[in-house]
Design goal:
The complex is a heterodimer of chains A (about 250) and B (about 250).
Chain A: E1 2-11, E2 14-24, E3 29-33, H1 40-48, E4 55-60, E5 63-64, H2 70-77, E6 80-83, H3 95-106, H4 111-124, H5 140-152, E7 158-162, H6 170-187, E8 190-195, H7 198-204, E9 207-212, E10 215-220, H8 222-227, H9 231-237, H10 241-248
Parallel strand pairs in A: 3-8, 3-9, 6-7, 7-8
Antiparallel strand pairs in A: 1-2, 1-4, 4-5, 9-10
Helix pairs in contact in A: 3-4, 3-5, 4-5, 5-6, 6-7
Chain B: H1 2-24, H2 31-46, H3 50-71, H4 81-120, H5 123-129, H6 134-171, H7 177-185, H8 190-216, H9 222-252
Helix pairs in contact in B: 1-6, 2-6, 3-4, 3-6, 4-6, 4-7, 4-8, 4-9, 6-7, 6-8, 8-9
The chains are: A alpha/beta (about 250), B mainly alpha (about 250).
């Protein structure tokens, strides 16, 4: 479980996050939703330590990440897997080398064991015969799947996904959503997904936090979100005509 | 007001640059991976520059030889001075300084754009999240490879510069090959080579670390990568010229 407690963050005097407190549960897909510029990406970067918080705390299973030094944080970071919006695969390395990277960096496994793990991770995301391709030779959906394979290579306890289906067609987006859901349940990990895709919200939202102007505005699940009368959340959820029609049914 | 801003900005960047270097020279997470990276950088930074350096050195050697010959028309001056002048200019300035300036353009822009692209495509964030010291992993192998390889490139350039002059002497009517070779051997001091190599090591650090700094702190998109690349070449060239002056003052006088 990850607990964010009273987190504030500002850049050059411009406050982005205002006293945000959220609990992200283990074995569930925790969604952070909100409009562009609402602060959800800043919140995620604070949680993983890419930004320092001004005050407040972030606890990984009771371990306060904000009070740790670089060495102690490194221990937590080995337990984190992250899928980036643009996949962030190392483009000078092949698919196999990308997935091997965290294994070679942090484990003392033999090359044979590492290759076995790479192949296992690739099979887990339903990819075959791509080991020696470079990221530029893959489609967007395949890159995301390699990103997931790299993220799970070290058996993470926490999985972060930043807009996992942005730039993908709806069908591939659903495949990626399902994959994240399966992995979360299979390995019983704490998964945090940042998204503004309503398909993902309705498919996978076990626990949803709505961020509005840097504040946690609403919290609930995919069933509750349809019944909410919170104006700002309704404006966000029912922005498209399809969702408006869906609401009227 | 503008002067104050400029001073503050300069000190801010110098401070940030040295803080980055502090992270670069921290103990690497995995020596085996760093060794692999150094070998790969030796190939991409070093081997990839050999062709360009060969062409430039041969032609510059030839031109220096021709220019010296055309200016040495006094019958009291011995013809071997042509070879001597070509050798001295190449060893003292052309090979270490001019080639480093050329490498600052070639290697420097390459490093700034490579690291800049990694920054804006979140590859550096990915390394950080994995707990990797991204500055050390990305920049340390480049600096090490440059320190190992650029002195070799400079010696290679010295040899090819002298060869360029030799080719000219084969076809010149004003002086002979023997004159040229005598000039190359005349009053040769090993310290000149040592001086050139000492300079080169400092230049190698500048050629890799300054562009790496600009790339590492790139913000924005593709346009900013281009700007970082241009800035890195400009600042590296200025720093090379300053280091050249300081080291010459310290080592030769």
């Amino acid at each position: 479980m990850i607990e964010v407690k009273n987190v504030n963050k500002s850049f050059s005097g411009n406050q982005i996050l205002h006293d945000v407190s959220i609990g992200f549960k283990k074995g569930e897909i925790n969604l952070i939703i909100g409009a562009s510029g609402s602060g959800k990406s800043v919140l995620t970067k604070c949680i993983v330590g890419l930004h320092e918080v001004d005050n407040g705390s972030i606890e990984y299973d009771g371990r306060d990440f904000t009070k740790m030094n670089f060495k102690e944080r490194k221990g937590i970071r080995k337990e984190i897997g992250m899928l980036f919006q643009g996949s962030a695969l190392f483009d000078s390395l092949t698919v196999e080398e990308n997935i091997k990277f965290p294994l070679e960096m942090y484990t003392k496994k033999s090359q044979e064991e590492i290759i076995d793990r790479v192949n296992f991770c690739l099979q887990r995301v339903n990819l075959d015969n791509v080991n020696h391709l470079y990221p530029a030779e893959l489609s967007g959906g395949m890159q995301k799947r390699v990103g997931i394979a790299r993220a799970i290579a070290l058996n993470p306890k926490y999985l972060f996904c930043d807009e996992p289906n942005s730039g993908l067609d709806p069908q591939t987006g659903i495949v990626i959503d399902n994959l994240i859901q399966e992995i979360t349940e299979e390995y019983n990990i704490t998964t945090i997904v940042v998204t503004h895709d309503m398909n993902s919200v309705m498919e996978t939202g076990d626990h949803i936090s709505f961020i509005y102007k840097g504040r946690k505005w609403w919290e609930g699940n995919k069933h509750e979100i349809l019944k909410t009368d919170n104006k700002e959340l309704c404006d966000f959820v029912y922005a498209s005509r399809i969702m408006q029609k869906f609401r009227n049914i | 007001m503008f002067y104050n801003y400029l001073m503050l900005s300069t000190f801010h960047h110098i401070g940030k640059y040295f803080l980055l270097l502090g992270r670069v020279f921290k103990k690497p997470d995995n020596f085996k991976l760093i060794k692999k990276q150094i070998i790969s950088e030796l190939y991409s930074l070093g081997i990839g520059s050999l062709g360009l350096i060969a062409i430039i050195s041969l032609f510059m050697g030839a031109v220096i030889c021709l220019q010296t010959a055309s200016n040495l028309n006094n019958p009291l001056l011995p013809a071997y001075l042509i070879g001597f002048a070509t050798r001295e200019s190449f060893i003292l300035e052309m090979a270490p300084t001019v080639m480093s300036l050329i490498l600052a353009g070639k290697i420097g822009s390459n490093i700034a754009s490579e690291i800049g692209a990694m920054r804006i495509t979140e590859q550096i964030d990915a390394l950080e999240i994995m707990g990797v010291n991204s500055a050390s992993y990305l920049i340390f192998p480049k600096i090490t490879a440059a320190i190992l390889f650029i002195p070799i490139i400079v010696i290679y350039s010295m040899v090819l510069g002298a060869l360029g002059g030799f080719i000219v002497s084969m076809y010149s009517s004003g002086f002979t090959m023997e004159d040229y070779i005598q000039g190359l051997r005349y009053d040769f001091k090993v310290f000149s080579i040592i001086y050139a190599l000492i300079k080169t090591v400092f230049f190698a650090v500048a050629i890799t670390s300054i562009p790496a700094y600009h790339g590492y702190y790139t913000r924005g998109g593709a346009l900013e990568i281009g700007k970082s690349s241009t800035k890195s070449v400009v600042y590296t060239s200025i720093v090379i010229l300053i280091i050249n002056y300081v080291l010459t003052q310290l080592l030769l006088l």
